[in-house]
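Page header: ASSEMBLY MODEL / two components / 777 residues total.
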Amino acid sequence: MEQIMKKKYPKMKIACLILALLVAGVSLFAAVPAAEAEGGFSGLTRFMGMIQTTLVYGVFYALLALGFALIFGAARVVNLYHGTFYMLGAYLFATFARPSQFNFPFSAFLFFQIVIVAGMIYTGYKKFSEKESKNKPVFTKLRFPVVMLIFAEVPLLLLFLRVDLPIAGNLNLFISLIFTCGLIGLLSMLLNKAAIQPVKKESVAVLIVTIALAFFTERLIDAIYGSSNVPVPSFIETSTVQLIFDATIDSKRLLMFFVGIFLIAGVWLLMNKTKTGKGVLAVAQDSEAATLMGINTQFVFNFAIMLSAILAAAAGIFTTPFLGDASPAIWLGVVIKAFAVVILGGLGSIFGSVLAAFILAFVEKFTKFYISSSLEEIVFLVIIIIILLIRPQGLFGKKGRF
Amino acid sequence: MKEFLKPIIASFINPNTKKIRPSKWVALIFFMLLTLVPIHQMATENTWLVKLILTTNIFAIFAISWDILSGYTGQENFGHHFFVGVGGFMVGLFTVALVKPGVVEGATQAALVNVNIPGGILILISGVLAAFFGLLIGVPCLKLSGPYLALATISMGLIFYEFVDKILPGLHPVIKSHATESIRGLPSLVSSPILFYYIVLIVTIISLLVLYSYSRSNYGFVLKAIKKDEPAAKAMSINTTFYKVTVFMVSAFFAGIAGAFLAYSLGSIAGADIQTNLGIKIISMCIVGGIGTISGSFGGSYFLMILLWSMNEIARLLSDITGIDGIVTFYKIFEDIFYFGAIVLVLLFMPHGILTSVINKFNARYLKKKSTELW
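Prediction written out in full:
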């Protein structure tokens, strides 16, 4: 396996070197563009600001793209629901952690509610797909879960009809984090079981189902929370951290940077040092051969989609405090960015996307700081098109049909 | 020419019995009924039915033009709203934004161009421009398919949105940024709304006939072959490049024309009208009707639009009876959820689409024949 790894990722050493240099760069020269508030940039602050934002956004995009690449590698599906995990992560975390004036454990109620609903849908799906009950009419098979679902959903329906219930959990931040990650993991497994696996053979059907479900969730969140943005609490209060050479950085960004690096390193260790992770890599290389070697591919799919969803949710929890409040429509930009990063890295290569994330973040932030901040998004999208036209296999991917 | 027309005529008239196929009679009666719709407005002074059918017709053109590209050829386009936007903004720019003087802080700014294009020609130009954009996108995207093509087309749509939202407002003070109506006050195409209704109806019928004939001609068979197995089609010495680019342009042309009509019927055009969810709504209409059948997606758009409208009416009636205002608000929030829920449920449980499945079952039970095609 080690040798296969070395063959598969010959450029990993270079990638790690560049990454290390970038990290060294931030610890030496990071600076926040303090002049921005006064209306002007000096040359050095502009440069420092660009480097610092590039690094923070690079880690952010890498977190997103790592999960996206994992699912593609293991299950060969493009999961456009990925951005929604990011959005839901932020929303659920805010729901659990927001202080409420009423001492009502709403989040625990919501948690059990969602677990019940997920269980019901899963039972319904199981009953639906059972072979011996194929001749029974559909409604007989689904009666029990549907009735249970209706009972479980009545409180939520009351919420939709604008009965004044405070949606706030008043929980400890770390407990909220654990709750959120658990829920997102469950949801991702449900998504895999109920929506992706039935249409997995048709790659375009997977695309349509996942993007439709993403819009569905967007509207649902819009209906529950209203279209106004929801502030996400942060683990750290806003302050400027003093670095070397009078350089400063926003504490929330610094937290995101370190958490992101920690998670990426964790995923790297998980993938390369544990049996499960090696199994994922083996399935990514050749799923049939992996099955012959005794790897449970179904378990690997579930594991990969759960890991990717939790990474996306973590990105949502740690980036939304400084990017601005959570809003239902943020998922589209996020999923497009993750997709673009993964394609630049090469759809077969999981860690190539980490390098690609830094490259794309650099291009985006260079445009923002040196050309025009309104062109930031357009330049990013144009670069996606150019990559697709010139080198659709990406930097580290294999050649093939696209 | 006769060879070219032969399969098309055979799809309308059964060559063995020399009779018009029954499904074509259904279509004929359906369109006859649609021509009678304005009587409702004349009799009751209510405009809702005419407006509903008008919007549905425009969406039906979107759906069938998506289907010829994606359902038939297998080039799944997730950015169909881009072509719609090209058509709509063409009309918006050349009837209001560029040709009328704008007012900035009291001072009048002169019009950018001084032309007055008649509406009909403007609609044709927007179709041709959309087809040109179809060529621009279609040629580079030839070697892409599946997720790659999806990413490319979604990005195209987002680029257009960013362009409309950030760059276009700098051109002229009339154009607003990030509003639901960025270009407002479009003149109506013709003086009476009933005449406009008939124009849209005729355009719909023509588009349906053209695209249906296109799909049933030898070109359409090539498109199906490309969807099934492109290397095999190439091996049969078919120039697949030509066919793929052509179908991209045809699809874009009709979407552009329908987009122009959309702008005229709304009376305004904005970035909010052409966001990514419009593209997904078009796809949902095709999937609900039956992907890969032109008539299926036409029926699907009518099915979804009328279903959603009637649910809206039921909600309104319920709130009238019970006196709770919340029901209408509740429905308004959930309107889009139905679109996206329908697409998922249909794809998971009825992958051939509702209408196609129902008609196949009807055929199998009462006519004792196996049919995979609608109409």
